[in-house]
Amino acid sequence: MAFESLTDKLQKVFKNLRSKGKLTEDDVKTALKEVKLALLEADVNFKVVKRFIKSVQERAIGADVMNGLNPGQMVIKIVNEEMTALMGSETTELKMEPGKATTVIMMCGLNGAGKTTTTAKIAGKLKLKGKKCLLVACDVYRPAAIKQLQINGEKQGVDVFSMGENQRPLDIAKASLQHAQKNGHNVVIFDTAGRQQIDEELMAELAEIKENITVHQTLLVVDACTGQAAVDVAQGFHDKVGIDGVILSKMDGDTRGGAALSIKEVTGKPILFVGMGEKLSDLEQFYPDRMASRILGMGDVLTLIEKASANIDEEKEKKMGEKLKKGKFDFEDYLESMEQMRNMGGLSSILSMMPGLGGSKMGDIASMVDEKQIARTEAIVLSMTVQERRNPDLLNPSRKHRIARGAGVDIAEVNRLVKQFDQARKMMKQMPGMLGGKKGKFKLPF
Amino acid sequence: MANFFSRLVQGLAKTRDNIVEGIDSIFNGYSEIDDDFYEDLEETLIMGDIGINTTSAIIEDLRKKVKEQHLKEPSKCKEFLIESMKEQMNAGDTAYEFEKRQSVVLVIGVNGVGKTTTVGKLAGKLKDDGRKVMLAAADTFRAAAGEQLTEWAHRAGVDIIGGAEGADPGAVIFDAVNAAKARNVDVLLCDTAGRLHNKKNLMEELRKINHIINREFPDAYRETLVVLDGATGQNALQQAREFSEVADVTGIVLTKLDGTAKGGIAVAIQSELKIPVKYIGVGESIDDLEKFDADEFIRALFDKGGAKPEEDAV
Q: Fewest C-beta atoms under 10 Å: which of A43, A75, A355, A408?
């Protein structure tokens, strides 16, 4: 999880602060020195860190902090507020042209930042919103870049426009707009080649496209684990080409992602999305305020709540509770609950968003939750007929053999699952009143 | 060597501007060696992505030397700093042994660092040295990765063994290793899919690939290179560390040093993990891969170019 280690560090610092009644100037300075080191280690740009520390210090050593009831909390609050202010306080949507007008988007960034993959991810998102996208292969330099865009476009069910490797990107872009006009595309996304921001020739190529074509949104893709250079990169692209928004890729790594803090501050441009995985659906909205809370160890509770409310049907939830109480929980219900959990991003993803589970603890828990085992269990259940799922008593040895073959597991595993399931059901029946308080008492069969 | 040097200088020009101008201003801007001087130096090194731990170690070393030798002038400090950093960067004598032996080179790293490009460049280089080279396209995950490597194989004029998108990378490696043995290839270069080092399953896949090479070709000289993006910050250390867990990593390739990338992370990696940097990537064409030379690297970092007169070193 991004920022995890930073969370750990700040928590340690603030633990010491909490134990004291009042904050002295020395306390604040000591704490902020740790914050500074943690931020630097998190790859936040040095100049950004300096400004940040200064503004927090100015506020923290103020009278209202010293006279506050809980000085430790006050410092956390100030650090949180300043951090949020630094990252931009609001979620920003990708701006589209009104009505049926065509929106032109240009992707840019360093080599290997993830432009082509992100292009396809954005197209998928826009397609869900009812837009008709055209992806334009403007990377005429990297071998097989065009092919990569074509394959990704096909996977997303989005059209791709290319003219091979022997045309100028500007000409390809121009031609693609005509193509879009003719074929009714209302979003055109240029996937450009990766380039270093100090490569004047290649930077001029992007500027030339913008001079000749109305580009509504120029998006900079930055690798989340970029170091101090993140600021130079963002500044370089912003000065020479002009950017409207930023996408942080590879945020599913364990980088502390200090780049996120720096870029907004230096360019003044919002971070729109974060790339969270290799699947073409793994692109998420960037929430600056929640990210700040996560840095400070408050967990990403808001995200969890939102995910849960979007995915769990309250009615179903109620019914499930009733069934559990009556011990009528069957394999069909089991499948449904697994489905809901997956919609929320899987068990480990849910766990990682809980407060207090950040840092090293997360590793322990993640290793305890064997997602593979869950998948195997699901395979067994899926290999049952509907009748068998509704009435597990039907399961005789011959049926179990068939199920084991179908799921590709040993029959012992099927037996174990059925037995555990049976026990859980019996337990629930015996203790109808206990479910409210002591959920931990019974073991679900996974 | 001159060629290498000027290339490195070109590629690192920007890095030097960032690190060295800072360092030079420190060395020359202070009249005595005091805490402010050290603090300023510490900041400058951190700005170069060298990292807090390594920076602290370097500065501690410097403090000790200053005390032992009763140094009073900041400018004298420079020589000592260069020396101590060189010490940290020292690669072994057998670093490039695999180039001469019958070997299998496994190239690994996170997404988008330049693995495929590095394999392509390395193939061109070894081919030029008269070695019989074969490529294994074991990135069967990313769209068009195989095509990308095939183009490099074509440019370098070497054979390639591949698999369809979605094929088992272990099977591709198995085929490639056996083909390499059958055709008596000198160096088999294995490109793999980019994977974030915190993805357990993908890392296990890598462990399996590594195991297959060991099992199928026990006589081959093994080289495992982790490719790191030169612009990566402190996470590069973690990447190197995690990849070492699943394969016996013998070297680092530091790519994209032709941008504003700070070579600093190389210092941190070598001092903290003892994994030597063996190559650096300084551009997009096939000959833009150079052997890493700690001595030249540090000199290029501190000497304002060497090829140029030092008039601007105020």
A: A408
Q: What is the pLDDT of residues A384-443, one digit of tens each?
A: 998 888 888 888 889 999 999 998 888 888 988 888 888 777 766 665 444 443 333 333
Q: Which CATH code of 1.20.140.10, 3.30.70.920, 3.40.50.970, 1.10.260.30 fits the domain covering A306-441?
A: 1.10.260.30
State the best of A223, A233, A276, A364 to mutate against chain B, taking most chain B CBs within 10 Å. A223
The residue in chain B having the minimum alpha-carbon distance to the alpha carbon of residue A253 is B196
Beta carbons of A43 and B52 less than 8 Å apart: no
Domains A4-87 and A103-298 share a fold: no
Q: What is the dihedral of CA A297, A303, A305, A309, to 10 degrees?
A: -170
3 state SS of A391: coil
Contact in structure between A112 and A54 (CB atoms under 8 Å): no
What is the fold, at CATH topology level, of the domain defined by A4-87? Four Helix Bundle (Hemerythrin (Met), subunit A) (1.20.120)
Q: What b/e readout covers A357-380, taking b as 16+ CB neighbours within 10 angstroms? A: bbbeebeeebeeeebeebebbbeb
Per-residue model confidence as pLDDT tens digits over B183-194? 999 999 999 999
CATH fold of A103-298 reads Rossmann fold (3.40.50)
Mutate to test the interface with B, among A142, A228, A374 (most CBs of B within 10 A): A228
**Measured between CB atoms, which of A41, A114, A254 is closest to B52?**
A41
Give B49→chain A minimum CA distance, Å: 6
Domains present along chain B, CATH in parentheses: 2-91+300-305 (1.20.120.140), 97-293 (3.40.50.300)
Q: Are A75 and A60 in contact (CB under 8 A)?
A: yes
Q: What is the mean predicted confidence (pLDDT) over B238-255?
A: 94
pTM of the model: 0.74
Query: How many Cβ pairs closer than 8 A exist between chain A and B?
Result: 139
Check residue A433 and report its DSSP letter. T
